[in-house]
Amino acid sequence: MLLLCVVLIAASGKGFGLPAKTSNTKVILNGGQKVTFARPDGYFAFHNVPAGTHLIEVSSLGYFFSPVRVDISARNPGHIQAALTENRRVLNELVLEPLKEEQYYEIREPFNVMSLLKSPMGLMVGFMVLMVFVMPKMMENIDPEEIKQAQEQMRNSPVPSFSGLLARANS
Amino acid sequence: MAPPPRRLLLALFGFLTAAVLATLVAAVYEDQVGLADWHQKYIGKVKQAVYHSQKSGRRRVVVLTEENVIASLDLRSGDIFWRHVIEKNDPIDQLSLSLGKYVVTLSSGGSILRAWNLPDGQMIWETNIQTSTASKSLLHVLSSNKVAKDNLVLVSTGRSIYAVSSIDGVISWRKDFTLDDLEIKQVIQSPENDIVSVVGVAGSSKLALYQLNAKSGEIVKDAQESLPGGLCGETVLGSHDVLIALDQTRSAIFVIEFKGLSLSYNKVRVSNFVQDLSGTVKLLPLMSNGIIALQSSCTVYLLKLKGMDGLEVIHSFDRPAAVSDALAITEKDEAFAVVQHVGSQIEFIVKVTSDLSNEVIREKVDIDQHRGSVQKVFLNNYVRTDKSHGFRALIVMEDHSILLVQQGAVVWSREDGLASIVDVMASELPVEKEGVSVANVEHNLFEWLKGHMLKLKGTLMLASADELAAIQSLRLRSSEKNKMTRDHNGFRKLLIILTKAGKVMALHTGDGRIIWSNFLPFLRASKSGEISSALRIYQWQVPHHRVMRENPSILVVGRSGGDSVSPGVLSILDSYSGEELNSQRFDHSVAQIIPLILKDSSEQRLHLIVDSNSLAHLYPRSPDALKSFIHERSNLYFYSVDIQENAIRGYSLQKSCDLNLEDEYCFSTKELWSIVFPSDAERIAISETRKLNEVVHTQAKISADQDVMYKYVSKNLVFVATVSPKAAGEIGSAAPEEASLVAYLIDAVTGRILHRVTHHGAQGPVHAVVSENWVVYHYFNLRAHRFEIAVIEIYDQSRADNKDVMKLILGKHNLSAPITSYSRPDVTVKSQSYFFTHSVKAMAVTQTAKGITSKQLLIGTIGDQVLALDKRFLDPRRSLNPTQQEKEEGIIPLTDSLPIIPQSYVTHSLQVEALRGIVAIPAKLESTTLVFTYGVDLFYTRLAPSRTYDSLTDEFSYALLLITIAALVAALVVTWVWSEKKELRDKWR
């Protein structure tokens, strides 16, 4: 039984500097039983494949291929069914396409002010600045009467401060 | 103060876990490549080399290696232009060039013919050839003198011959010869007309000659002749119409002439013309006009053909190492090279067939002592500027390295022994001596500041392209990682590597350079052709450096023969210098090596070597070691897995051998238990245990609902997987109904099966990894037709009651009860399985110094990449809708398949071709593990499974910190001045 398929790789290999070439695309039958390479036009073939259910995997750096389940009928020769195992999509023709491109590197975020401000340090600095400039303003807005009242209260119920305690102990 | 409301705490916790989950992927940035990792490409031991023709102007050589790699190498530097690693089950036998632009390979016993584009290695076509019998196949590329567009490639297997067009791989004709048992030995192209002569041997004595039309394959003439005395099968062409064949006894030569239709032969005894010949001879494939080469056990004879009557010895080389094939340098003249060992040097001799009495070149070349003897030599010529011929040669050494020799010097060399690693071990570097302070690293403050300013510019994205390059080189040049001393974080180590050739090499983890190498004499093939095999490598002695001033040493164990009953050998090497300290030949075989945790007084590790008769031998052989061993003997148990008999057996050690000789270091073993699997239903596919040096930090696992689960942590846990015999083959060979996989968890001391689970409709290949209290294994699910990874976690139920704090306080707990393997463990098992996209080649788990850091599985995929998968994805407690509490604990919602996140490939955009093994080595820094991956390539990197929480990363910008501090100080001063002024103003008011 001859199995002929095509591997298609999108020629848009941009982004991570990997050459979009089929030269290192391996096609693997049944987890390594047979391995072949894709030709420049993307075609590949496995020879002497018996009837039954088989698995084809494609290994190509930079692309994610779903393994393909291939059923070769024993009763009517030449009848082949294929389906992607990842999403169970049935292939009408044996054309293997990558599900997605793989990006192996983290992308560096370009420097921007917002990300710096959003970081914990930035938030802390922002809060401090807020306190420094806004708090005095708030204090000004408070009615002087109220402040006096509050100070009165403080005096009446003194917070037992550490220095106060010390002073008391000394006396 | 009132405690914060619980809900607030929970929210905070949830936020934290969400933050942690977001960091499941620990990827590298593209500009970080090469900072902590290195990648080395190899090809393996060269078995065939074909040079590009002179005309093409490219100085390249195409090689075929024993690792089944075809590669194009640069002759000037030895760099790889392109390379293809072919699967081991598709062995490439022959390699040839066609039309000067294709590389044609014949593989799988002559059934697959492939053509590769010479400049870039792209496969052009592939042709399948029907082979009937498993016979030796031949590849012959017809050379056309005319300016032809197409060239035929002839492939002969058994009694068929195929002609394949080298442009597109279409079979243009095929000829099956009718003679029974015919085996084609030679395909000869006559230079004048398009006639191809095919010489074959049928049975043991019949010689057949066919002349075919090269264009159509029709038989023009044929002739047959029976030769008395039979043929051994070795034939070689003497000239274009004379065939030389060896007879069955290998002591006589047939000179067969085929002029036109007639076949005439003459039998000549070798001893007639070669004096004092001992033993049998071998024909060397030195195709040269009228010159043939014979090799006896230690001498190579060059014979000149004198018509039909006989041969004459014209030259002989004593103790040659290798003879190259002949190389046509002019129309009529051919050259060949002979390499001899002279003391520590090798002698490279080139002769021309037209003038055999003189040598064109006789050069002595110095060669590294640790390369062994010369195995093969491939000669190539070039035309010098003065139109004379210069010669260079590729020399393959016994340690699998290759050298290019030209003008009496080694131009380049490749350490291709590293393509076939047998075992790997990590060893510490020497401690930094006092007096050499670390301070001199930052020798120049200005330089240091400049470097940091550059880095700051880089992080602020202000750097130009030139500056970025400068930053990159600055990072790579940082000498810190390549120092020859131990570092505080334990990143710098020596990787001690044992190769198939028997060479031990130490690589520095900083950049992968070879620190030392030693080609162990006992592992080298002896004169009698006995093949030794290297087995394992172990830590032998790790002296406590404050107490002893000795270097640590390593133990290498091997076999002095190919089969398992041949006696073993051991060698002890200094791990700092590679010097051999001691070597020993056993009088017993090596079946199993058991490193013990015991040490003798000189801190040598005790090792038990079990031979094929189930006798255990103790090493080192010192009374001191014996004493400490006897003391612990009754507590020692071991097990062996017998794949042949489909059984696992457990043993204990008895007093002494019942052999007659008094050997107190030998102990007999007693079988305690055995599990024999029914071989009609189950076949052992894999057995796996925990790594000996693995550290488990916590025995208990606390879930979010304050429940405690005790891990069943046992060093004696063995995972065994069996598959049904029908499903033992490849995927696609078995139907789901007849396939099943059974996973066992066995206690290796008592042989008790702790857990057994059957996966119906599942089959191998199985890969497994055991760590702490869990097993993860990969197999193929035939029903879903997808790969699956399953996890089993084992918890100790007998300790589950120890949750009550009151009981602990009052001492009413059973924690102090002795834990013994004899008591029946009360375990509970949780398991789950998930789909996984890829086939797996190797599996390992990260290891850290204290075992606190969470684990990652390292999965070597079919694409020769290594994927790091967080263990949290393989948690049997995952469910579709985890409760709030479970989410807080970090349990990921259940999905049917495991995610493959491209950024979590440890090998990023690199491939470790023909990946075979992954080794994780703990660094001293708890968060970090060192990962070494090997196949034909080597790859090393540092991993931090939970990010580097215990140290600042290389990314940390010290300059930014300094600038912040400076800015703060400035602000302080300014505000202080301001406040002073304000105070003054207030006072004046």
From TrEMBL, chain A:
UniProt keyword Transmembrane present: yes
Membrane topology: Single-pass membrane protein
Keyword Signal: yes
Stored Pfam families: EMC7_beta-sandw (PF09430)
Major localization class: membrane
SUPFAM superfamilies in alphabetical order: Starch-binding domain-like
Protein name in UniProt: ER membrane protein complex subunit 7 beta-sandwich domain-containing protein
Organism: Brachypodium distachyon (Purple false brome)
Gene name of this polypeptide: LOC100832226
UniProtKB/TrEMBL annotation, chain B:
Signal sequence segment: 1-22
Record InterPro entries: Beta-prop_EMC1_1st, EMC1, EMC1_C, Quinoprotein_ADH-like_sf, WD40/YVTN_repeat-like_dom_sf
Record's keyword annotation contains rRNA-binding: no
Cellular compartment(s): Endoplasmic reticulum membrane
Transmembrane regions listed in the UniProt entry: 956-979
Residues in ER membrane protein complex subunit 1 C-terminal domain copies: 771-988
Quaternary state and interactors: Component of the ER membrane protein complex (EMC).
Record protein name field: ER membrane protein complex subunit 1
Gene label: LOC100839696
